[in-house]
Amino acid sequence: MKQFLLLLILAGPAFGNNSKTITEISYAGVPGYDAAAGPILEWSSASVENAEPNIKSAVKAMPGLRIRWLGTFGYEISDAQTTILIDPFITRPKPAELLKPIVIDTSAVQHYLLSTVDLNKLAAILVTHSHYDHLEDVPFILAQFPDANNRPIVAGDPNTARIIQSYKHGSGIGWVDRSGGLADSRINILNLNNDNPTVEVGTFGRFTITAFKGQHSRYDYVPWRGPKGPVKDKPPYNYWDYKLYNNLSIGYLVETNGLRIYFSDSPLVLNPELIGQVDILIQTITSRAENNISTCLEELKPNYYIPAHYDNFFKPLDAFSKFDTVIGLDLPENIFDSPGPSLVNYSRYNEFLNEFETQYVPQAVASKKLDRKPKLRVLKLFYYYSLESLILKY
């Protein structure tokens, strides 16, 4: 029963096939994006109003170094010569679809991602962990490269490798068979553990990537980290077949032209002192039952903190007439103890905006390790943000 309820809570709906574009989303009334709802935190708008480097944003890719949020914990970072993807996830299956083998929505992946990325410049895909909302669409992206030697390298845990390599020729899945199967894909399997908490992933163009051992946090309302264990099935997979590997969530440090960006799909970063100071910390805020966000601020000392994974992935992107930050269903906040119903909200985005200023930053400052306050910034879905001004290091 508990797993069934969580399955409903963590699910997300599939895309429709209308012509609405992602740029039509309204952010009116959304805290952080709309002045009527409080201070402006949207990066490009806030940078114009404050004495800091001007971060320009646009729907179309601009020249030079830029970053784009793809929703959930999906990101694209590119310098126009080399492109890196982190956890690209577009499909978003409906809750009912998670009760049976789930199918990649290839038309949605093509429309929202592949049509806007120069595949000839895609060098690597970084996967933080092997749950479906981080890994599901990666095989279809790889299948765009029939020649395995031309495929981007995938970095991830052993379960990530097993799932990708299980898409074999003769599977009966059209796009898999047309690609010749993915068993020969280039995968950098990261066996991170306590004795080996960090490893160099590689250098791709002007990007250098290092992986760090992290831990997938518990969900706020149920002490569970999601499906885990060995992967033994074959595609199409059920929701519960996308399993954690030893509760691992891999963090990635991306360095380019002196700029250091750390991506953590967990609010619980292990050994943050190993990472060192960064310019930008991008971190999941969903499920904060256990976190060390204040310690991350102390040790990493980011100039900018960008929260992630707070968009409502119960809703298809083409249904985002207004940006939605409430991730949940009409269930009790504490499913088993609460006396009355309320909306389960896994991101608690509005609360986080307050917690960051009143809890996490003050705790970090009190440690006397943090000598300047990081700037909290948010991104709009599928907008490109230029990082060229940050290369100058302020």
Distance between the termini: 52 Å
Shape: globular
Query: Helix share of residues?
Result: 10-25%
Radius of gyration: 20 Å
Q: Which structural class do you get from the secondary structure elements?
A: alpha/beta
* Largest β-sheet summary: 8 strands, mixed
Helix count equals 10
Q: CATH homologous superfamily, by name?
A: Ribonuclease Z/Hydroxyacylglutathione hydrolase-like
Number of strands: 15
**Could you say what the CATH architecture is?**
4-Layer Sandwich
**Can you tell me the CATH class?**
Alpha Beta
Query: What ranges have pLDDT less than 50 throughout 5 or more consecutive residues?
Result: 1-19
Overall pLDDT metric? 87
- Structurally, the number of domains stands at 1
Along the chain, the helix and strand elements come as HHEEEEHEHHEHHEEEEEEHEHEEH
Q: How much β-strand is present in the residues?
A: 15-25%
What topology, given as strand order, has the largest sheet?
1-15-2-3-4-5-6-7
SSE map:
Elements lengths: L1 H9 L32 H7 L7 E2 L7 E6 L2 E5 L4 E4 L19 H7 L9 E5 L5 H4 L2 H5 L10 E4 L1 H8 L8 H6 L7 E3 L8 E7 L2 E6 L38 E6 L2 E6 L15 E5 L8 H8 L3 E5 L40 H18 L8 E2 L7 E3 L1 H4 L3
Parallel strand pairs: 4-5, 5-6, 6-7, 11-12, 12-13, 13-14
Antiparallel strand pairs: 1-15, 2-3, 2-15, 3-4, 8-9, 9-10, 10-11
Helix pairs in contact: 8-9
Walk me through the structure:
The structure is a single chain. The protein has about 400 residues and is of the alpha/beta class. It has a single domain (about 1-390), classed as 4-Layer Sandwich (Metallo-beta-lactamase, Chain A), CATH 3.60.15.10. Helices cover about 20% and strands about 20% of the residues. The strands form two sheets. An eight-stranded mixed sheet has the order 1-15-2-3-4-5-6-7. A seven-stranded mixed sheet has the order 8-9-10-11-12-13-14, with no helix packed on it. It is globular. It starts with a helix and ends with a helix. The relative contact order is 0.18. The model is unreliable at about 1-20 (pLDDT under 50).
